[in-house]
C-alpha cells in the first residue's frame, strides 16, 4: 500500500468516527435515543399498555351501564307494584265506599220489618200495609243493587265469622242442637264482607 492510499484510508476512518459522534450528539440534543432491546421485556410495551387502558375503560363503562340497567329495572318494577297497589286500593274504595251509608240504613230496614210484622193480621189490601210493603220492596231492590245481602242464620250451623251468639237455650229437637234457633237481629254482608253480625240464639 502506498503512502497516498494509506493517508486516504486514515482520513475516511476519521470522517466515519466524526459522523458517528455527530449522530450521537444530534440524538442527545433532540432527546432521541435508539431503543435498545431488553432481555425478557416485550417489544412495543408502550402500545400494549395503552390498549389495556382502553380495555379497562370499556370494562368500567360496561359496569356503569349494567348498574344503570339494574336501577332502571328496579325502578320500573317498583312503579308497576305501586300502580297495581293504587288500582287495587281504588277498586276497594269504590267497592266498599258506601259501607258507612248502608250500615246506617240497616236500623231503618229493621224498623220497616218490625212494622210489617205488626201488620201481619191486616188484610193485604189495607192502604197502610200496602204502602209499607211498597217502601220495603224498594229498600230490598236498593240493597240488591248495592250487593247488600242478608245473612242466612235461622236453622244454620253457628259460624263465628258471621254470627254473634247472645245466649243458649234448650234445643226444641235433636236436629237443632248446635244450630241457630232464633235470630234477635239480622246480619248483613256487603260484597261478601260482614258489616253487621247476626245476633242469634243457639240450641243445646
Brief overview:
The chain is of the alpha+beta class and 204 residues long. The chain contains 4 helices and 6 strands. Helix 3 packs antiparallel against helix 4.
Describe the structure.
The structure is a single chain. With 204 residues, the chain is of the alpha+beta class. Residues 19-23, 31-35 and 40-45 have low confidence and may be disordered. The strands form 2 sheets. It has a 3-stranded antiparallel beta sheet. It is elongated and about 110 Å long. Helix 3 packs antiparallel against helix 4. Helices cover 58% and strands 14% of the residues. It has 4 helices and 6 strands.
* CATH topology heading of the domain at 150-204: Nucleotide Exchange Factor Grpe, Chain A, domain 2
Q: What's the gyration radius in Å?
A: 51 Å
What characteristic shape results from the CA principal axes? elongated
Proportion of residues in helical segments? 55-70%
Ends: how far apart? Answer: 150 Å
Number of beta-strand segments: 6
User: Any idea what the CATH architecture of the domain at 150-204 is?
Assistant: Roll
The CATH homologous superfamily of the domain at 150-204 is named Head domain of nucleotide exchange factor GrpE
List keywords for this structure.
three-stranded mixed beta sheet, single chain, 204 residues, 4 helices, Nucleotide Exchange Factor Grpe, Chain A, domain 2, 58% helix, alpha+beta
Write the layout of secondary structure elements.
Elements: H1 3-30, H2 45-96, H3 99-118, H4 127-145, E1 148-150, E2 163-169, E3 180-185, E4 188-190, E5 193-196, E6 198-203
Parallel strand pairs: 2-6
Antiparallel strand pairs: 1-4, 3-6, 4-5
Helix pairs in contact: 3-4
Amino acid at each position: 500500500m502506498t503512502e497516498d492510499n494509506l493517508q486516504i484510508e486514515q482520513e475516511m476512518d476519521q470522517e466515519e468516527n466524526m459522523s458517528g459522534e455527530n449522530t450521537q450528539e444530534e440524538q442527545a440534543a433532540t432527546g432521541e435515543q435508539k431503543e435498545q432491546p431488553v432481555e425478557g421485556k416485550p417489544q412495543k410495551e408502550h402500545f400494549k399498555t395503552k390498549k389495556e387502558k382502553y380495555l379497562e375503560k370499556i370494562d368500567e363503562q360496561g359496569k356503569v351501564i349494567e348498574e344503570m340497567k339494574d336501577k332502571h329495572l328496579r325502578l320500573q318494577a317498583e312503579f308497576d307494584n305501586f300502580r297495581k297497589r293504587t288500582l287495587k286500593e281504588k277498586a276497594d274504595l269504590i267497592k266498599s265506599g258506601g259501607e258507612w251509608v248502608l250500615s246506617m240504613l240497616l236500623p231503618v230496614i229493621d224498623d220497616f220489618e218490625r212494622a210489617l210484622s205488626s201488620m201481619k193480621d191486616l188484610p193485604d189490601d189495607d192502604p197502610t200495609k200496602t204502602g209499607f210493603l211498597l217502601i220495603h220492596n224498594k229498600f230490598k231492590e236498593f240493597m240488591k243493587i248495592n250487593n247488600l245481602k242478608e245473612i242466612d242464620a235461622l236453622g244454620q250451623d253457628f259460624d263465628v265469622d258471621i254470627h254473634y251468639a247472645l245466649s243458649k237455650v234448650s234445643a226444641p229437637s235433636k236436629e237443632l242442637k248446635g244450630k241457630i234457633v232464633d235470630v234477635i237481629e239480622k246480619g248483613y254482608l256487603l260484597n261478601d264482607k260482614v258489616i253487621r253480625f247476626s245476633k242469634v240464639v243457639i240450641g243445646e
